[in-house]
Design brief:
With about 120 residues, this protein is mostly helical. It contains 5 helices and 2 strands; from the N terminus they run E-E-H-H-H-H-H. A hairpin with a 5-residue loop joins strand 1 and strand 2. The chain is elongated, with a radius of gyration of 16 Å.
Length: about 120
């Protein structure tokens, strides 16, 4: 379905690109850094041309920034109190489960929801 807005940018529905945006978070496990960069590039380049990309992209970026914050707090927390390991385990479980849940939501045309996410943008 193609729609045209005021700026003559063709707006299309592309659930596959939404799914790829969520799946690209798993690049953190392969490369160590791609889980934030790739969704950011996808979101910035297609937020105006794909229906739902702005919402999904913001959710992915907020989730990745929240995970980074959890790591920044959790690592010193291990040294100071020993309780930081619980935060790191929580972040690890979230980083595995939540992208998979939202891949299914994106493929079904539903809105994303990431548990434990701080809204930065």
């Amino acid at each position: 379905m193609e729609l045209v807005n005021k700026n003559t940018v063709a707006v299309r529905e592309d659930r596959n690109l939404l799914v790829i945006t969520h799946l690209s978070q798993y690049l953190d496990f392969v490369t160590g850094f791609g889980g934030l960069l790739v969704p950011l590039v996808i979101w910035l380049t297609s937020k105006d041309s794909v229906i739902g990309m702005n919402e999904h992209g913001k959710s992915v970026i907020n989730f990745q920034l929240t995970l980074i914050l959890y790591l920044i707090i959790g690592i010193p927390g291990i040294l100071l109190f020993g309780l930081g390991i619980l935060l790191l385990i929580f972040a690890g479980i979230l980083s595995l489960v939540m992208p998979a849940v939202n891949v299914i939501k994106a493929s079904n045309g539903e809105s994303p929801s990431y548990f434990g996410t701080i809204r930065f943008i």
